[in-house]
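REQUEST
  id: r-88c1
  op: predict_structure
  target: PD-(D/E)XK nuclease superfamily protein
  payload:
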Amino acid sequence: MVPFLKQVAQDIQHRFGNDLSDIAIVFNNKRPITYLKKHLADTYAQAIWSPQFFTIQEFFGLSSNGEQVSQLTQFFYLFDLHNELLAKEGLAPESLEEFYPIAEIILSDFGQLDYDLVPIDHIYMELYDTSRIDIEFQHLTAEQQEFIRQFWQSFHMAGHTGVQQRFLKLWKRLPTLYKNFKAKLEALRQTNFPTIYRNLVDGKIDNPDFLLPYKKILFVGFNALNKAEAQLFQRWQEEERALFYFDTDTYYLDDIQQEAGLFIRRNISQTGLVNALGDSPDIIGKRKDTVHLYASTGKVSQTKLLHKVLTDHEKEGKSAAILLADETLLVPLLQSLPELKVNITTGFPLTQSPIFGVLNLWMDVHETISHLKKSKLPYQYLETFLNNPMTRVSVADKKVNQDFINEKQLFEIDVQDIDVKSSALPHFFKPLTESKEVVSTLIHILDNLLIALAQDTQIKQIDANLLIETKKVLNQLQLGFSKIPQLSVLFQIGLIRKAIVSINSAIEGDPLDGIQIMGLLESRCLNFDHIYILGANEGILPKTSAGITFLPNNLRRAYGLPILENQDALTAYLFYRHFQYSSQIHIFYNGIVDENSTGEESRFIRQLEFESQIQFQKQQQQQPIQFPPVASELVIPKTGAIWEKMYRTFIQGGRRISATALTTYLASPLQFFLKHIAEIKEPPSISQEFEMNRLGTVIHEVMEKILQPYKGIEAFTSTSVLKDKIETVDILVQQEIAAQYHIEVQSLGDFNSLQRIMHKIATEYVKMYIQYDVDNYQSFRIVELENDEDYIMDFPIQINDKTETVTLYGIIDRVDQVVTDLGEVKTRIVDYKTGADMVKFSTIEKVFAPNTENKALVQTLFYAYVFEQVTGHRNLEPHLYVARKMREEGTLFYGSYGALMEGEFLAQQKEEFVNFLTSTLEEIFNPEVPFQHNPDAHIYPSDPYTLFYRNVSESVEP
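RESPONSE
  id: r-88c1
  status: 200
  body:
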């Protein structure tokens, strides 16, 4: 089938020959212009004088000399004018906070009334009693009067309440407000598109001869016309100034039951517009092709299915487009696309960028400290700030702040204690001195972010565009706010959120090459060989809600204003027209029923399936079904916001994965989710378990102080020097406990009973560690000691058939070289443990497995692997210092069958460990494997996450 725009190009050549310089071609949007230019070039195959191309608003704008005024500026005009009317009525003025919720609705209604040429005085007439309808609306038909009577019955039956009275007064006031608003625009030599449309019909335009330069005006691909467009088009057709090209099919045009043909039937039958292409073809009715329909197991899973379909079906030389019926799928789609050339026209939303994360966090912070007048913030605010890549906080600064929170176990942090000097936004947490600083501070933040981005070798165009567009909006708000004496911080922030939430940055590419990604509305006039439609669910295609308005549905019907059925008809047309041209059609929808999805395909699909000869080949995405032991088991699928956060945090954001995080996942994937994805922190505690955690810190710090003097010495040192250190252990432990609790002590008597117990245990453990080294080794040298900063590495894994990188993070307690009594030199990595860990394991298969048998061995091998990869050292033996058992069992890990983790056996197990590490990380980032608790894992009484999976444990058979 010849694409619609190619038919238009061929007709233009037939009608007008080679000279098109005095031809104007008008579209609803810019996107089809590029395609028609290409088809004209292909059709003519020679140099010609080009026609002039316009969007409908650009073309109508030629009639006016007025400056186009922004929506925000119109809002502030409306606010001033409304308060002037209240003053004349002797009423108190409304605050900006009170007026804003209704201003958007008023402006929207004003615009719609202009587009559809509704008499303002009539529709806003105050009607206290339905008996006045026949008098006031004699010009309406009986059916129209009945629509209005039905609406007003609800007001008449029970009298007028206070709210109704206020509403009626507002309605009575709106005609005057409308006239004053238009007068203000005219006085300022400003205008908006609704005004231009009404003025064109009324003949009140600045440039009455704006049509004269054009021999013919071609209106291409129009469908739903407002009354202004219908009257103008009809007039220009009668004057032989205009031609109209409608993209139609008899399948929905000739059948009045087909909503997809509603508007074109009106254009042709009622308005009398003639389709320059002649009679409509009959394509859909004769098609017997197969359309592929995919039901996914979740909203985001549609993009994963599409990845495979594109890989299998997409071919060079074929035009293709991905149409987003649900435009919230853009970001998951971008993360799931295979390596194909694409062009994205929908625009990247500000809300999905780290820039919005910074702005939103700042607004959260200042809602708390400037509006709620709190001096403390949740620590998550600081954590979010430290981890956002746009803030550019140095590693050292981040560590200082995180350590400060952790060491004091702060769930809330005093604003005065926040000190982030290295950031691109050093004054982020500084309280506002007055409310008028809100917008100016945010503008300053945007300027700083732009400066920081400019320092990169290559600034991302998307980020730059988003920053500039956001700054434009904030500048408009600042101008409007400057005229109002006092606005609360809370209201300003609320308005800013509303104003910036719709900002997008265009992602430019080649519209004629590669797969095009666009919304359904943007696909008007365009045809592609292959079409992929995402989000084709009932409730989304079509939408089930219309815009908010003060004009009730019955009244809208009476005056012929758009209603929800009109929206359905337009969406149906945009959907059906792709069945006229595309040779391959693939449609995806979410087959899961949840609070946001019906789990059903669009009714448009079912209509085609029932009424046409098109064959729908249905495919259901399958995945293992979870059968929890009890109904209360918590299973977290890796879909939607969860998967987006995982990918954004670990893959794009580079959050580190530690050995502890790895063993947490092995014990309980659900706990890994709670800790590292949901970031549900362990609550602060002053229990004995909390003190035992500090015990480990004390021991590590004291061992570091004892061994630090020997770090970096190339020669081996006799272990006999450590004997003298044993005498200093008591005082070193005492000093470290005092430092941990930020107290001053002169003697053990200054400790409380728990601290004295800690002192006793820590002293004995440290002495035991030192004595072990003295007894078992002749000499030693320290290679690395208590380093938790330098051992970071990128680790490649496969995610959705694509190589991605995660960041591994190793904390090195101690790496040394020792000489045994037999004169053998060993290089060891040593981990200190104060709990029930052990060096013995039964089989290596049970270690490298979910719910690992020996967590300490997995962690030590993890540390050894990272250290070896970063430094180039090799042959590190994993040693564990467990004070309770090291005298009897030693420190080198060994199997129950006697194999020691050394030599060739160790080398083999290190290779196995890397394979195990790879498979575990790939499982963590496998969207098809949900997070759920391992019922075989031991649950400790002190586990703060017990409530999340207690029922799972209790349900397991003994």
